[in-house]
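Dear colleagues,

As part of the handover before I leave the project, I'm documenting each prediction I ran so the next person doesn't have to rerun anything. This entry is a single chain, and its sequence is reproduced below.
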Amino acid sequence: MRPLSWSEVSAEPTAGRSSLDQVSSQWFHTQRRSRHQVSGTGCGLHDTRRHGPPPSAGYEDRSREISTVRVQDSIEIGRPVGDVFEFVTNVDNFPQWAGPAVEVSGLTGPPQEGDTFTLVQKFLGRKFDSPCEVTSVESNRRFAYRSTGASPVPFTFTYAFEPSGAGTSVTMTAEGEPGSFFRLAGPLFEKAGKRQVKNDLETLKDMLEEGQ
């Protein structure tokens, strides 16, 4: 199974329109409604920018939108935990099984906490560099890294490893912030993230088990 790109995993046409088109359209119309709300029984418009939401007008407070998306999934891999940990923590392997990863540079050898590297990714058709820092390394148990600097999509990835019979249980947790541009497709961003994490784990499993 090949890794999905973010552009592939996010495209779900419905009735001739993509999910991104639908979400963007819903956001646009919601914004228009939130600017001017009808107040009372007359036709006068209530300016929410000056006076705040009118009472009992069904006003939706979009300021409470959740800006951080968190997705998690697990998989059983029929390889010893040491083999799985070594493969996952070798960041040069990312483009082989982690969908958005295109290229990795700046880190050689086993990673240590505080090490940095640059991850080139392709997301929703846009290619960009993400400087990263390794934040946690526990041999055969845990590996985590996060983006640093001006990444368009700030993110953190965490992998937990546990022996499971003759194999290994891997739990992958991804946290990301869509940012001012991608927040227009917040629900789509989360749905795409769930599918991508699942696909990445399945690709990892296929690669490691086929390589036995």
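The mean pLDDT is 76. The radius of gyration is 21 Å.

All the best with the project,
I.
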